[in-house]
Amino acid sequence: MLATLRPALVMILLMTALTGLAYPLAVTWLSQTAFLDRANGSLIIRDGHVVGSALIGQTFTSERYFQGRPSATVAPDPADPSKTLAAPYNAANSAGSNAGPTSKSLIDRVQTGVADYRQANGSTGPVPADAATTSASGLDPHISPANAAAQVERVATARDLPPARVRELVAAATEERTLGLLGERRVNVLLLNLALDDELKGAQQASAAE
């Protein structure tokens, strides 16, 4: 019987060592050496405090900021755990709405989103798709360049900045396709809004120095 059990035990120990120790350690080593920033959450730090992640969107409501893509993520209702409440960009529950194209709730939400977007940005033309629809993860930190361009005038007016300067900041925050082929050109909303705040700080410091 021992002769029968020995190969099984050796195989269990070998696979445990390979898949339970060697492989996780190798992946951790690779991520911490070749992809250190992403492996640790791509955290963004300002004045010694973590203000967000370049990989996860945030909600911005002020007219002074560019607004991100809608999010359909939810969280448990504190009053009734059996129910859920809307919780945009909830990284603990990454998901899309899972609503189909014939869903009335989806149609109503998109129509409301289009109307709100046009009203907020003084737009009457076509609304970029990402301005009214959610991503599959619900955590997308990016918007399309067209979406950002439609918000320039609103942000520039709210911050009393020349629209041309805001467009320069949008261009600087625009990321190209990965390897020139994968994905689409995109604008990281958090990085763009931080650049706007840095612009304000720079102007205030220059004014104080005069």
Describe this structure in words.
The protein is of the alpha+beta class and 210 residues long. Helices cover 49% and strands 13% of the residues. It is built from six helices and seven strands. It has a three-stranded antiparallel beta sheet. The chain has a two-stranded antiparallel ribbon with strand order 1-2. A two-stranded antiparallel ribbon has the order 3-4. Strand 3 and strand 4 (80-86) form a beta hairpin. Helix 4 crosses helix 5 (163-173) and helix 5 (163-173) crosses helix 6. 19% of the residues are buried.
Concise structural overview:
The chain has 210 residues and is an alpha+beta fold. The chain has helices at residues 2-34, 36-39, 104-121, 145-159, 163-173, 189-209, and strands spanning 43-46, 49-53, 74-77, 80-86, 142-143, 174-175, 186-188. 49% of the residues lie in helices and 13% in strands.
List keywords for this structure.
single chain, 210 residues, alpha+beta, three-stranded antiparallel beta sheet, two-stranded antiparallel sheet, 7 strands, extended
